[in-house]
Amino acid sequence: MSGSVLEVKNLHVSIEDKEILKGVDLTVKGGEFHAIMGPNGTGKSTLASAIMGHPKYEVTEGTITLDGEDVLEMEVDERARAGLFLAMQYPSEISGVTTSDFLRSAINAKREEGDEIPLMKFIKELDKDLDYLDIDQNMATRYLNEGFSGGEKKRNEILQLMQLKPDIAILDEIDSGLDIDALKVVSKGINKMRSDNFGCLIITHYQRLLNYITPDFVHVMMQGRVVKSGGPELAKRLEAEGYEWIKEELGIEDEETAEQNA
Amino acid sequence: MTVETKLPFNQEYIQAFSKDRNEPGWMATLRSKALEMADSLDMPKPDKTKISNWNFTDFQHSYKEAAKIASLDELPEELKAYFDKDASMENLYIQRNQTAAYNSLSQELQDKGVIFTDIFTAMNEHSELVEKYYMSDAVAVDQNRLTALHAALMNGGVFVYVPKNLQIEDPLQAIFWQEDTDSALLNHVLVVAEEGSSVTYVENYISHNDTEETVANLVTEVFAHDNAQVAYGAVDNFAAGTTTYVNRRGVAQRDAQINWALGQMNDGNTVSENITYLLGDNANSEAKAVSVGRGKQTQNFTSSIRQFGKETDAYILQRGVMKGGASTIFNAIGKIEHGATKSNSEQESRVLMLSEKSRGDANPILLIDEDDVTAGHAASVGRVDPLQMYYLMSRGLEQEEAERLVIHGFLAPVVSQIPIESVRKQLTQVIERKVY
């Protein structure tokens, strides 16, 4: 079976009546790694949140489909069970719920009743992924994200990614606040997911993550739109020259982008 | 039935009841005096909850002997769930209605002088010991009309006595099973831990009277002598027809510790007060309580720790979940008396509201009569965080499952403190049943 297809067409999204996305088009297929780059406040995280169904974001126009199914008609949990995953920039802390209890519930949520993952199998696979991501075993018994450092939260998001094995994952600034060692570990986890059945949309502010994860496609977002797309070489040029040349090339003028820190 | 109405029990009835139980003279006298006082005493006045039209005084009290339990196998499944099947269950008391129907205590503990028996047997066999503690220094007969009524009509309970320097590792468990739907329970639990001893005691109250109205009037008195430790766990699970007054008190002497973990899962109207006195220097107490309100029930919970000794340490933790049209008041009262220098009083009360119609209130109260102390409090009433729900649902959990996790997580700091695993599981199931 070949991978899933996430298709975003002419997506307009508002938060509290302010339009952030102004017509985004994007297609991510199984087997493809896409990177979305761009200056702060251009709507990158808004795109991620809108795809997952964050309660504060309102889609005013356009469509999102997964394998032809209307994602916008789905509740957040239905989107997840349909195969979407979002590694969040600011994961919530859930007091009193251990990481391992939560993960087991999440894995079982995707499985039929009566076909729950056997406990021993779950523990074995969890231990394996914890090791792979260089995470202390005791994280499994700590309350989900509670008191985690920034780096621990990011690793935990990737741990969940590896455990839940979605068809399409969106990683929202998974590299922010990571030191170089943590960045390497997180990248290692993401790279391990690579297969024909896994598509990934990597949202990042910095090119440095792309030194460890090679994208097949790079998109630049500005002022709520994807303004330029290319291959890995585009990321390299952005690293070297910044975003000004794109603005000049496309005749984009600075407006109120700086305040749209979404 | 209003407060002014005369009580439906007279001296003649009470003396006959006492005689039937073969009680010592001091108990007959105590009952008689209590009944005299009851008419003139005021009802308790729980802060912000009006109880004047609750029925606490009109109930069936006649004693019917219930069948003994020959083997635990014959108990209904619902009750068996409270036991640890893997554990040996050597120290167990089951009260069926008002009858001591099952009682076991390991030979080893018997040999060491531990007493774990129903309150009537205890009064006969250890009259002086019971008299010394019974409704004198912890709960006073004349505290209010309901404590007096309790003293006059007490009809069940258990006595726990731990001799000096004995550490009991296995918990003692008591199950108060109201099999009949109509009879009132005026239950008395007395726990005495002598100097340097330690004990864990867990109790469960169970009834099924969803519609038949009755009353539970419960008193617990815990005494921890110098350097003694008492861990007290409870799951109260009276059905909707029972109106409950429960008064649990502890008295801790020097270096002593009393820790409470109370699962307050009644479905009927409830007034609960849990008060601990830290009399000795360096005594400490944690009072943790959890509650789920549902339907139309009204509840009022007070947790209070009064600190008299120097360098005492108190921590109150209350967690409540409200749904339907339930209304609940949580009062946390930390009181540091003059002279209790270098003491610390901390408290935290949090209420989670699941419906628009429910009402919850958390009142943090600190009363401090000493300068050289530390204290802190936190209180909140709120709804389930939509961002937490979004996060959990984004991993595929259905809304109900996500909410369930958040609620269990919210209650976990108290639930995890219940000492016996099977009781902890049972409490979790009761929470589940009440929330959904």
Automatic annotation (TrEMBL), chain A:
<dbReference type="InterPro" id="IPR003593">
    <property type="entry name" value="AAA+_ATPase"/>
</dbReference>
<comment type="similarity">
    <text>Belongs to the ABC transporter superfamily. Ycf16 family.</text>
</comment>
<dbReference type="GO" id="GO:0005524">
    <property type="term" value="F:ATP binding"/>
</dbReference>
<protein>
    <submittedName>
        <fullName>ABC transporter ATP-binding protein</fullName>
    </submittedName>
</protein>
<dbReference type="InterPro" id="IPR010230">
    <property type="entry name" value="FeS-cluster_ATPase_SufC"/>
</dbReference>
<keyword id="KW-0067">ATP-binding</keyword>
<dbReference type="InterPro" id="IPR003439">
    <property type="entry name" value="ABC_transporter-like_ATP-bd"/>
</dbReference>
<dbReference type="Pfam" id="PF00005">
    <property type="entry name" value="ABC_tran"/>
</dbReference>
<feature type="domain" description="ABC transporter">
    <location>
        <begin position="6"/>
        <end position="248"/>
    </location>
</feature>
<dbReference type="InterPro" id="IPR017871">
    <property type="entry name" value="ABC_transporter-like_CS"/>
</dbReference>
<keyword id="KW-0547">Nucleotide-binding</keyword>
<dbReference type="InterPro" id="IPR027417">
    <property type="entry name" value="P-loop_NTPase"/>
</dbReference>
UniProtKB/TrEMBL annotation, chain B:
<dbReference type="Pfam" id="PF19295">
    <property type="entry name" value="SufBD_N"/>
</dbReference>
<dbReference type="InterPro" id="IPR045595">
    <property type="entry name" value="SufBD_N"/>
</dbReference>
<dbReference type="InterPro" id="IPR000825">
    <property type="entry name" value="SUF_FeS_clus_asmbl_SufBD_core"/>
</dbReference>
<dbReference type="InterPro" id="IPR055346">
    <property type="entry name" value="Fe-S_cluster_assembly_SufBD"/>
</dbReference>
<protein>
    <submittedName>
        <fullName>FeS cluster assembly protein SufD</fullName>
    </submittedName>
</protein>
<dbReference type="Pfam" id="PF01458">
    <property type="entry name" value="SUFBD_core"/>
</dbReference>
<feature type="domain" description="SUF system FeS cluster assembly SufBD core">
    <location>
        <begin position="178"/>
        <end position="410"/>
    </location>
</feature>
<feature type="domain" description="SUF system FeS cluster assembly SufBD N-terminal">
    <location>
        <begin position="22"/>
        <end position="173"/>
    </location>
</feature>
<dbReference type="InterPro" id="IPR037284">
    <property type="entry name" value="SUF_FeS_clus_asmbl_SufBD_sf"/>
</dbReference>
<comment type="similarity">
    <text>Belongs to the iron-sulfur cluster assembly SufBD family.</text>
</comment>
<dbReference type="InterPro" id="IPR011542">
    <property type="entry name" value="SUF_FeS_clus_asmbl_SufD"/>
</dbReference>
